[in-house]
Amino acid sequence: MQNDMSYEMEELLPIVIWLTEKYTSKESSSVPYETAQVLLKAVMYCIDECISGNQTGLVSENAKLSARAAYERGYEVIFEKVREAKVLYDQIIQDFEDYRCKNYSDTILKGMPGFFTRYDARFSPQEHLLTLDYPLLSGNPDLCGIDLILAYLKGIHFEKQILDCFDQSAIRNLLEKIRPGYQNLYLDNVCYPVLLGAIGCLIADRPVHTLQLSKKDYGDIRLYFRGDNAEKIKLKIQKIIHMIISQIQGLDDPMYFDPVCSSYAVRISEGLRNHSLENVMVSTL
Amino acid sequence: MEKNIFDLMQSKKSQDELAVLVSCNKMTEKFGLSLTKEDAQELVVRRNDSLRKYQRVEFGNGILDKLICTFCDSQYINQDNYLRTLEQLQDIFYEFKNEAEDKLTDDELLTFMSEQFESVCFGDIEYLESTCLERFAAAVRAGYDGYKKTGGHNEYEKVDEESRWDKELYLEVVRELFWG
Fold first, then answer.
1. I need a labelling partner for A249 at 20 to 30 A (CA). Which of A107, A166, B4, B17 fits?
2. Do residues A147 and A219 both lie within one domain?
3. Is position A4 within any domain?
4. A190 in the same domain as A99
5. How confident is the model at residue B166 (pLDDT cuts 50, 70, 90)?
6. Which of A145, A160, A175 is where one domain is finished?
């Protein structure tokens, strides 16, 4: 093992051969390139898990791990992550509300169980099997395998805690206003317009959970952002979101929303310029 | 990097397999067959060509020694055609591992190949490849899995399209010739 925990191909070779023999049950002495590539990626994924685990202190930096030991430790890390993801998923579906949004419901209730029954931690841990059609607020993470599924479920869980703070009927009305017949047609994130509406309510000093904004409220919001460029709007939104999050018990990661603030800022800025703020911050009224 | 590891696998393998192949002579000599070191080297080179051609990676001892064990008692192989036959057999072995979508184990495919080579093919590799294996692989691809129970034995009759021996017709001809 090298100090930086990177391995030469010669060190990976015996693991790939061992894994291939396990894959074929020693009944086939050769495999297609594609299969060998998948198995090589499986080995590299496990070792990466060990290395990323090392960064969080799972493995002592001074430990002299062979490639095989790093592989086995990475495999254990993957198993732990699968268990963590399953616990999280069980929490999510306990009182899951899909707001009658088919894409949301299909991804979480129909698709996700398939991952837990079909995920193959030994031969293809890098495959996540699902397309995750329902996107997270800031888009799906650029990860693969169990890392993607775990990060995705964490995001879903986080966003669900926010959505749970709003009237279910208000969210359904909002989605219907944005996209009539949204039940089958709305393919975007549910939290995105809800949070944007909540920002508007907070600025206009209206009850946030109802997501209702009057004409006068839109005037107040325009006034609040008057003369601001997108960057300034972004900073203001960040503060408001942090304020909303701080009010919700159990949420401990206000930074989760930072990436989406830029998108909100651009949309609000355009809405102000084109006098179409009503189409950006949609009201349920 | 991935290509690198596959090349590495093949180069590591070549180092000790020549000795294994030459050691097979102890078993094949009683059938009048043997390989020189040069023959073994040529077989390995052709094997690597076949693996590249069919885009496969081989591990462990590979298939060559098993191929020799399976076919060395064939009535259609003699010292003159031994090397050439092995080269052709190993090439179609990899070809039909692919054609059968890797559903056949090494032993199942070798058993099927050797049985047909000795029987319906009468040692004709071209017929084995283009007819027997073609039909069998098509059946396997279509979902046939009876070979798992038989290990590849007596499988061709299930996919054979020609009537090979009609006892009634034979007796009829004999009757016509001698008593007609």
1. A107
2. no
3. no
4. no
5. confident
6. A160
Residues A51 and A86 in one domain: yes
Burial class (CB in 10 A: 0-12, 13-18, 19+), A186: buried
Average pLDDT, chain A: 90
Structural domain ending residue among the three candidates A121, A144, A160: A160
Whether residue A178 is found in the same domain as residue A264:
yes
The answer to whether B51 contacts A30, with C-beta atoms less than 8 Å apart, is yes
Is A5's pLDDT higher than 60? Answer: no
Q: Return the residue matching tokens 């790939």.
A: A16
Asked whether the beta carbons of residue B105 and residue A17 sit closer than 8 angstroms, the reply is no
B58 at A interface, C-beta within 8 A: yes
Listed residue (B78, B91, B153) closest to B125, CA to CA: B91
Using DSSP bridges, classify how beta strands A30-32 and B56-58 pair: parallel, antiparallel or unpaired.
Answer: antiparallel
B136 and B160 Cβ atoms separated by less than 8 Å: no
Instruction: Let me know if residue A95 belongs to a domain.
Output: yes
Q: Which pLDDT band, with edges at 50, 70 and 90, does B3 fall under?
A: low
Residues A143 and A197 in one domain: no
Q: Residues B124, B88: contact at Cβ < 8 Å?
A: no
Residues A214 and A136 in one domain: no
Element (H, E) at B171: helix B167-179
Q: Would you say B11 and B5 are in contact if contact means Cβ atoms under 8 Å apart?
A: no
In which domain, by residue range, is A178 found?
Answer: 165-280
Is residue A1 scored above 50 in pLDDT? no
Whole-complex ipTM: 0.85
**Token duo for residue A65:** 């791990």
Which residues from A are below 8 Å from B2, CB to CB? 37, 40
Residues A142 and A178 occupy one common structural domain: no
Residue A85 has pLDDT above 80, yes or no: yes
Count up the domains in chain A and report the number. 2
Task: Select the residue of A27, A34, A37 nearest B106 (Cβ to Cβ).
Answer: A27
Q: Which of A105, A178, A188, A87 is nearest to A140 (CA)?
A: A188
Residue B129 CB neighbours (<10 A): 19
Residues A188 and A72 in one domain: no
| B97-113 per-position pLDDT tens digit | 999 999 999 999 999 99
Interface probe for B, chosen from A29, A31, A35, A126 (most Cβ of B below 10 Å), is: A29
Judged by CB atoms closer than 8 Å, whether chains meet at B105 and A12 is answered as: no
The residue-averaged pLDDT of A101-114 equals: 97
